[in-house]
């Protein structure tokens, strides 16, 4: 028996109503949805840390989510694992005519991306998803979703020409946010803050910097500096929570000066 067949059989045993695992049995497509997202983030984290042993494990956890969902779908008579694989294989062949169609000529990466998008758009139109943002998942992480929205709008010609134009837009949104804060209007402040964040994601796209990676880098930097600050405070036999804002700022500035 192949490895994948063994894995599928293991999942069937876990879901067996008489002899399976109670937790696995009670799971649904909906209850597992957050797990799919969580496992994908853990894969990304392992890659960022160059931890390939952990990456192997985390990719296995992603595969678990696939076979778990497939088994539940099979039980519900929706589709099965083989249909998932068959659908994927057909999609890969269909979207790579330059590889699988002998009559096609070699393409550059840029040309292939254009053809990929054309084929994908045709597939979506066949599903009656003709409007620009129809295929963007509602549950997509906000920063990624904003970037995807902006890229799709740009393909329609709705985009800033230069990065400096986006910077001016960011400054405009920041000014509007400051005004609403001064007006003490919570609802408008939230709206303007959203506009500012959307514009910053747009700026990162124009600069060819991934906004999610940039904020992750900032998160890691803050955590590292905060940990070092805690260590410095402990060396002086003090407790962080007992220090004034001015004292904390002095420790923080000192840590920042060392990188």
Automatic annotation (TrEMBL):
<feature type="domain" description="NTP pyrophosphohydrolase MazG-like">
    <location>
        <begin position="167"/>
        <end position="225"/>
    </location>
</feature>
<feature type="coiled-coil region">
    <location>
        <begin position="223"/>
        <end position="250"/>
    </location>
</feature>
<dbReference type="GO" id="GO:0006203">
    <property type="term" value="P:dGTP catabolic process"/>
</dbReference>
<dbReference type="GO" id="GO:0046081">
    <property type="term" value="P:dUTP catabolic process"/>
</dbReference>
<protein>
    <recommendedName>
        <fullName>Nucleoside triphosphate pyrophosphohydrolase</fullName>
        <ecNumber>3.6.1.8</ecNumber>
    </recommendedName>
</protein>
<keyword id="KW-0378">Hydrolase</keyword>
<dbReference type="InterPro" id="IPR048011">
    <property type="entry name" value="NTP-PPase_MazG-like_C"/>
</dbReference>
<dbReference type="InterPro" id="IPR048015">
    <property type="entry name" value="NTP-PPase_MazG-like_N"/>
</dbReference>
<dbReference type="InterPro" id="IPR004518">
    <property type="entry name" value="MazG-like_dom"/>
</dbReference>
<dbReference type="GO" id="GO:0046047">
    <property type="term" value="P:TTP catabolic process"/>
</dbReference>
<dbReference type="GO" id="GO:0046061">
    <property type="term" value="P:dATP catabolic process"/>
</dbReference>
<dbReference type="GO" id="GO:0046052">
    <property type="term" value="P:UTP catabolic process"/>
</dbReference>
<feature type="domain" description="NTP pyrophosphohydrolase MazG-like">
    <location>
        <begin position="27"/>
        <end position="100"/>
    </location>
</feature>
<dbReference type="GO" id="GO:0046076">
    <property type="term" value="P:dTTP catabolic process"/>
</dbReference>
<dbReference type="GO" id="GO:0047693">
    <property type="term" value="F:ATP diphosphatase activity"/>
</dbReference>
<dbReference type="Pfam" id="PF03819">
    <property type="entry name" value="MazG"/>
</dbReference>
<dbReference type="InterPro" id="IPR011551">
    <property type="entry name" value="NTP_PyrPHydrolase_MazG"/>
</dbReference>
<dbReference type="GO" id="GO:0006950">
    <property type="term" value="P:response to stress"/>
</dbReference>
<keyword id="KW-0175">Coiled coil</keyword>
<comment type="similarity">
    <text>Belongs to the nucleoside triphosphate pyrophosphohydrolase family.</text>
</comment>
């Amino acid at each position: 028996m192949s490895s994948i067949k063994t894995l599928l059989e293991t999942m069937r045993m876990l879901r067996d109503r008489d002899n399976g695992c109670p937790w696995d049995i009670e799971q649904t497509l909906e209850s597992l949805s957050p797990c799919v997202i969580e496992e994908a983030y853990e894969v990304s984290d392992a890659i960022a840390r160059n931890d390939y042993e952990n990456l192997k494990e985390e990719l296995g956890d992603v595969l678990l989510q696939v076979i778990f969902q497939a088994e539940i779908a099979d039980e519900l008579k929706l589709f099965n694992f083989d249909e998932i694989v068959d659908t994927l294989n057909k999609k890969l062949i269909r979207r790579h005519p330059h590889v699988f169609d002998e009559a096609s000529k070699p393409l550059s990466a840029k040309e292939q991306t254009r053809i990929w998008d054309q084929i994908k758009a045709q597939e979506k139109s066949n599903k009656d998803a003709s409007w620009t943002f129809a295929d963007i998942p509602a549950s997509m992480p906000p920063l990624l979703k904003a970037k995807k929205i902006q890229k799709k709008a740009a393909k329609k010609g709705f985009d800033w020409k230069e990065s400096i134009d986006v910077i001016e837009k960011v400054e405009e949104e920041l000014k509007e946010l400051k005004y609403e804060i001064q007006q003490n209007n919570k609802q408008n402040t939230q709206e303007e803050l959203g506009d500012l964040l959307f514009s910053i994601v747009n700026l990162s796209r124009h600069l060819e910097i991934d906004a999610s990676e940039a904020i992750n880098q900032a998160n890691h930097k803050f955590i590292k500096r905060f940990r070092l600050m805690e260590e410095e405070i402990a060396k002086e036999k003090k407790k962080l929570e007992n220090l004034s804002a001015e004292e904390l700022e002095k420790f923080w500035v000192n840590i920042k000066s060392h990188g």
